[in-house]
Amino acid sequence: MTDQPGPRDDAQERLPAPRPASAPVPAQRFSAPPSAHRNDLTPERTGRIVRQSANARWLGFLAVTVTSLFIIGYYFYELGVPGGLTEPRLEQAADDQQVTAVQRGYNLYEANCAQCHGVNGEGGKGPTLNRQDKLFAHLNPDYIRNVLTVGGRYVCGNPKSIMPVWSNQGNPPGPLNYKQIDYLIAFLRAEKTTTYTVLDPSLNEPVIDPATGKEKTFTGWVDPNYKPDPGATPFPDCWTDEFKTGGSASPGASGAAASPGASGAPASPAASGGGSGAVVQEAALNVAFVNGTLKAPADTAFQIEFDNQDAGQPHNIEIKDASGAAVFKGDLIVGPAKATYEVPALKAGTYPFQCTVHPNMTGTLTVGS
Ligand code: HEC
To answer: What domains sit in the chain, N to C, each tagged with a CATH number?
Structure first.
């Protein structure tokens, strides 16, 4: 509507109103005052800029310092402080992992192996595992892995070995996976010098001994400083060879004492001399002596008829005197088998006897009335 020319516009077009002449306006009137055109700085502004840039420099300095300190700190965290003050991070992590493996291996061992090899590897139905000469080279990680994968027959080729296959990669598969086998190996190879905490297998928390109120601990078996005698024969491949009389085993007192009485030679002087001698019966069954107590005459040679009824198990009879020295050591026989041991004359007294392979098989021999 408004863009419709109205009648008044028409009138203005037609009648221009006269305007009074005006003086020219000074140009300055339209520009800003001189203060606005200043391009130098006021003292206050200069002061502010100086303060600001000093702050910025400080900030930069601090940022560089913090970053450098972080890099230096991280360097030592990662690679360890020189002089052995701290361990490199990866080594530390590997150590932690090793400790965990040993702790888990301990639980696996106590649950599965201790029944035969003893709580501390001292032996029982199975051979000793904690001997230093054995741990030195014989019980190396590869060997242990093979034994656990193949089973007891790997050890001496005995197909009736009571030691089953443990690894689930064995044939037939055993109950333990490759990680658990690794843990067991870590435990069997753990060093004597390190003390480990017993962890509860289900809670993964330290086990508190109710008697002392302290955490239960255990140590490894391997003595890192052990070195076999330079002249010593290395541990035999088959552990039962260790007990063979006159063999590679220690040439010390027990071997010498045992050889005259050993059953190997039927025409031995003891046999002919003691022809009228007594015969004592003993048998082994389920890794125990059937007769816990034996009687024999004093000062005369006698025979022990030994019947090993444990299939696949090596047993013998080793008679000791009060000081613990072996006075007679029979040859090992793998059951089921019989042997007649010719025991030399003994003085009256009581003598403990045991199976060399299974030190927990014990009995007492009474000589004399
Ligand atoms: C049922 C009893 C039994 C159990 C359980 C048992 N073992 Fe054995 N172990 C034996 C016997 C027996 C031998 C000897 C094998 C042979 O010569 O027949 C043996 C041999 C070994 C050997 C080789 C020893 C040597 O001197 O060469 C190792 C290592 C071993 N066992 C580790 C283990 C581990 C680890 C476990 C637990 C997972 C275990 N055993 C569980 C009975 C057992």
So the answer is: 92-219 (1.10.760.10), 267-367 (2.60.40.420)
Mutate to test the pocket of ligand 1, among 113, 180, 188 (most ligand atoms within 8 A of CB): 113
Residues of the chain with pLDDT > 70: what percent?
84
Spatial separation of the C-alpha atoms in residues 124 and 130, rounded to whole Å: 12
Question: What separation in angstroms does the CA of 165 have from each of 127, 153, 160, 171, 312?
Answer: 16, 9, 12, 7, 16
**Per-residue confidence band for 21, with pLDDT thresholds at 50, 70 and 90:** confident
Among protein residues, the one with the nearest Cα to ligand 1's atom 7 is: 163
What pairs with residue 351 in β-bridges? 365
Buried b / exposed e over 7-33, threshold 16 CB at 10 Å, is eeeeeeeeeeeeeeeeeeeeeeeeeee
Q: Among residues 281, 329, 274, 283, which one has the least CA distance to residue 302?
A: 274
pLDDT tens track for 244-281: 654 333 433 333 333 333 344 343 344 344 445 788 89
Q: Which helix (H) or strand (E) holds 197?
A: strand 195-197
Other C-beta atoms closer than 10 Å to the C-beta of 193 total: 11
Q: What pLDDT, on a 0 to 100 scale, did the predictor assign at position 10?
A: 57
Amino acid at 36: A
Closest ligand 1 atom number to CA of residue 158: 18
Task: Write out the two tokens for 59.
Answer: 């900030």
Distance CA 41, CA 63 (A): 31
Nearest CA to ligand 1 atom 20: 152
- Reported as a single tens digit per residue, the pLDDT across 340-360 is 898 988 888 899 999 888 888
pTM (whole model) above 0.70: no
Dihedral through CA 60, CA 65, CA 68, CA 74, nearest 10? -120
Sign of the alpha-carbon torsion through 293, 295, 301, 304: negative
